[in-house]
Amino acid sequence: MKQKLLSTLSCAILGLLHQKPMSGYDLRKGFTSTPLIHFSDSPGSIYPAIGRLSRQGLIARTAREDSSRRERQIFRLTPKGRGALKRWLNKGVMRIDVISGMDELMLRLALMDGVVDRIVTNRFLKALQKEVNLYVAELRKYYALATATMPLSGRLAMESGMDGYRAQARWVGRAIAEVKRNRRLK
Amino acid sequence: MKQKLLSTLSCAILGLLHQKPMSGYDLRKGFTSTPLIHFSDSPGSIYPAIGRLSRQGLIARTAREDSSRRERQIFRLTPKGRGALKRWLNKGVMRIDVISGMDELMLRLALMDGVVDRIVTNRFLKALQKEVNLYVAELRKYYALATATMPLSGRLAMESGMDGYRAQARWVGRAIAEVKRNRRLK
DNA sequence: CGATACATGTAACCGGTTACATGATTTT
DNA sequence: AAAATCATGTAACCGGTTACATGTATCG
Description:
The structure is a homodimer. The first copy, chain A, is mainly alpha-helical. The first copy, chain A, contains 8 helices and 3 strands. Chain A has helices at residues 8-19, 24-32, 43-55, 79-90, 95-100, 102-110, 118-146, 152-185, and strands at residues 22-23, 59-61, 74-77. In chain A, helix 7 runs antiparallel to helix 8. The radius of gyration of chain A is 20 Å and the shape is globular. Chain A binds chain B through residues 34-35, 37-38, 99-100, 106-107, 109-114, 121, 139, 142, 146, 151-154, 156-161, 163-164, 166-168, 170-172, 175, 178-179, 182, and chain B through 34-35, 37-38, 99-100, 106-107, 109-114, 121, 139, 142, 146, 151-154, 156-161, 163-164, 166-168, 170-172, 175, 178-179, 182.
């Protein structure tokens, strides 16, 4: 049986539903009211995504809490959904993710707690560190070669990118230390 | 007459063709061989984009240089295309761009040279600075409130984002200074 | 001659965006 | 009673991804 590829939004939904069963509306609020806003809000993306996940058997309706509010459909993760979530969290960190999928990487990190153990988080951060450092080195090399011929605004834009990745490199070092410390304390 | 909304890729193509007329293949290489890689490579996105821009009258085929190579179709910007490019570069900097469109903002900056003057670049950077600082402040506030209840990995992911935006804030300060210095030297 | 780089495209698929539609419940 | 918020959806559109198709020129 082949695993369907899930969109980032779908995986975000799986991660949030793992933390706590909730409705489509709650999910939307979870996106719009936190820095997760990156991953879209708008009913036109979330409800269809819920429908797909439901059809694939990764999430399921819970008995609705008919307290007073109308028709709230609460969804929860199925075992199959939990499996899909774990697979997504366990994926490797590729060069291309660092170049154009950093948001998704950070989403993965954010959703790891309570789903995978610290070893996975640690492995993830180590892999990320490696790829970020490689990419910084590559950018530096490109910059050294091209800077002379680059116009001012182009150079500034490139420096912005490099600064961002350097900040990531520093951050990931601290993050690894924190995870290690946290593991020892347990 | 209403202006069609152009995709980021389309605008990137307009910007590159403004620097120098070239073929679809050249554009692809321009993307894959530089940090512009963010904005897709793959023939399946570039050739259709070229087709659309051509149909809209924003770019046009140049007499082909039939030196020896086969069928290279060289495209250049039309006056209408230059107008569209300028409008894109002159757009304001919104909060939402900072939150989920930083790549496009940096692309805009990178392509400004030779198309719009330093005043526009300066205005852009000032607006960016304002929005980045506001967003950093907002994140800080959210972090202060939520940090206690956030799991480790979630907190780390959030810190990554904050570090990134702080780096942007520092960079934009330097960038503004450089543009000012550069303007004085001229 | 075979491999690699040059060069351009098409077609199916997928999913996000936008806008619209609907209706209940709570607040003013 | 009107307005705002809660809550769920649908449909058209657009464009990016993937994979495929095709053929030339150059180089070893």
